[in-house]
Amino acid sequence: xxxxMKIKVGFEGHFEELTVTLPDGDVPPxxxxxxxxxxGRSVPRSEALLKATGAARxxxxxxxxxxxxxxxxxxPHANATIxxxxxxxxxxxxxVKAVVTAPDLFESRECRYAGSEVAAVCATTEAxxxxxxxxxxxxxxxxxxxVTLDDAMAEGAPSVGRGNQVNVDxxxxxxxxQRDGSLNEDREAEIRANLDEQEERIKGILRAxxxxxxxTFRTExxxxxxxxxxxxxxEWKDGKLIxxxxxxxxxxxxxxxxxxxxxxxxxxxEHVGGGFGSKFSAGxxxxxxxxxxREAGAPVRLMLDRRAEQIAVGNRPDSIQKLxxxxxxxxxxxxxxxxxxxSSGTGMGGSGAHNDLIYQLGEVDKVEYxxxxxxxxxxxxxxxxxxxxxxxxxxxxxxxxxxxxIDPIExxxxxxxxxxxxxxxxxxxxxxxxxxKHGRVRREGPIRxxxxxxxxxxxxxxxxxxxxxxxxxxxxxxxxxxGAQDIGTGTRTVIGQVAAEELGLRADEVxxxxxxxDDPRGxxxxxxxxxxxxxxxxxxxxxxxxRELLEAVADRxxxxxxxxxxxxxxxVDASGSAVLSFKxxxxxxxxDAIEVLRQRPTLSRRxxxxxxxxxxxxxxQVAEVAVDTETGEVRVERVVAVADSGKILNPKLAESQxxxxxxxxxxxALFERRIMDRQQGVMVNADMENYKILGAAxxxxxxxxxxxxxxxxxxxxxxxxxxxxxxxxxxxxxxxVSNALGTRMTSLPITPRKVLEALGKAPRPAxxxxxxxx
Amino acid sequence: MANQKPVFxxxxxxxxxxxxxxxxxxEYRRSAYEDRFTADTxxxxxxxxxAPQGPDELDCEPxxxxxxxxxxxxxxxxxx
Lengths: 774, 80
Fold this sequence. Notes:
Chain A has 774 residues and is an alpha+beta fold. Among the domains of chain A are: 1-35 and 418-461 and 609-774, 2-Layer Sandwich (Aldehyde Oxidoreductase, domain 4), CATH 3.30.365; 66-158, Aldehyde Oxidoreductase, domain 3 (Alpha-Beta Complex); 168-212 and 320-387, Aldehyde Oxidoreductase, domain 4. Helices cover 29% and strands 25% of the residues of chain A. Chain A is built from 20 helices and 33 strands. In chain A, the strands form 9 sheets. Chain A has a 7-stranded mixed β-sheet with strand order 5-7-3-15-12-13-14. In chain A, helix 10 runs parallel beside helix 19 and helix 14 packs parallel to helix 15. Chain A is globular. Chain B has a domain at 7-46. In chain B, 5% of the residues lie in helices and 12% in strands. Chain B contains 1 helix and 4 strands, in the order E-E-H-E-E. In chain B, the strands form 2 sheets. Chain B has a two-stranded antiparallel ribbon with strand order 1-3. Chain B is globular, with a radius of gyration of 13 Å. Chain B starts with 6 loop residues before the first strand and ends in a 34-residue tail after the last strand. At the A-B interface, helix 7 and helix 8 of A face helix 1 of B.
């Protein structure tokens, strides 16, 4: 059963009416002009004080009685096979309670990168655990390796994989490989024929284009660097596993551990010290920790150290993007040819770069290749594939604009039909003083200042699968419960706001509990889906709990429930006059509490949201930089970040998300890169000292402009904002540096050396290896 | 990603195959977004190895993790 209704959608100056089909029983989305008292307000994070004072308890802080300490032995070789492991000496050491090996737990003796798990111990102290690791004897058969894109792609490169696995393979469209790794020749010939036809078509378009620009762009591997490492504190109680895990997916971790151990574990995660996409799986460390705890018969803490964080639990793949863009003389894009290479470690998945989705690009010929290297595997990293893809395309767009003599923002406007972003271009231009600054490189001694811009896109209004419990107690307390985690984005706070709004209460009068799989199901925090998935369920549950409360009050008082509402901490009548306090109303309940559990309203299994104003977020950023032409140092002085995410439920928290994305994006643009020792096969900057990330002193002024969009699509009208703000930043910074220098920056991070190379003040290093197939 | 849509994995994909999108929607944990937007950024792992390769050392992905593969595990009730 569904209901049709007309709603108002759009944003300031751009409102229109839209007929939508709502899921049965759902409440209509917030509308312009609604008198909202809590939603849309900058309520501080509900856990802010706990975090600021150190009282928040993370996984690491759990200290059950009899806690043992786990540690993992990792392979020192980039490519090896374990011939033999002897753990007997370690197991006999005083204080050592259990030892496990990777071949036993994970059915593989192969170590495909330096840092892969070999064995693990738990002991009464961390020192004993470390000592025990040193007592484990391992005999390796060591193989040749390739740890960089260039090395793995070179002619005659050592084979990273096993059997028929090749180092370089087409991932999109996928090579027609059979299960043993060999080619399905007929199918592959068919794919190649289609690709050839596509390429010929694009070549024809490019030949007729007024302007053709072509560049090769490179980005480096970026690690996640969450301040709280991966890991867990776990124990077994009466055959049930209880895991305090640092995770972005409490139910995902529960599922994986449950499958591994044939039980339904309880996963608890009250606070998360960052994840950025790397904490969806229970991980090998989760399985190891649970095994150790079971074997030892005692709780075990197994949290990774910083080195392991940098090498073993994910990263954003690097990329080589060879792009060609053709435009007509009016600046209309006719075609884009894309060839991408990226390495996600020993596997092939996840190495793509998204550079064909934001603008109207005409014909697109895109082929992507995965490159197998002897490195720890990639994982989703805040907007996977997008920052690197945007860097390439936005750089090329700026070159095209210059070739055509068209302002870069105007060029983008001519190739964009996103109604929100079209307005955001103007906001960003005005806010940054674009017209005055672009095209006029400002020099001050050795300092040159430049300005650049880029756009973003995201797509999440949430999905099905969340349920929220609202409990109104007889004493007036209100609880809202959902088992998903709040990874620091403020989900807990916003859920409370949405419930409080329905119940006519202040946000601090509602207690929200998250991060416990004993509570109703919730999603992983990924794809910027959490808020759009959970808040509609919270709103509906609070709405229905309110109706139950008002019916109980009406029944006891002889009033008409339909004429009552909750506002300002009171029951109000049809005239809006307070007739009873909220607490007094709750005291009239016969039961101890009203409990309402509601699923996230959805239209159907395959279509979670109804039509709205735009199905995607937009976003435009403008960066201003100062480049020291003597030292090569780049400082990002200011970023104007115009962002939208449907209805802004909490401006302060939304702004915080944008700031976080910009900071991480500037860091990607200027500092971050995994450096591999090509001779030893190990990461040489696997710590927080030599792996450079942006610090407070490097942080630009960030001017956030939020566009509040009544988007519809779900009952809170909200869309995710975790990932979109990072999409454009590095591209905007690179364009600003290119603007300042008058030469295109084609490689991230933009280190001082690269700036000096661009200025001709330092020699360019040789790139590529013999036979690299670019 | 206006035209993004969930594509459900075939029923006979190995239950040990995992990827991030399976965790986003707990109701449909066997689903994965596989259209052109995310296929090239989807990263799979195996529950048995907790790695991008299965116990047979070949890659984990929907096309590969099907009945007939040596390590195919139709009922991973207890991998512990």
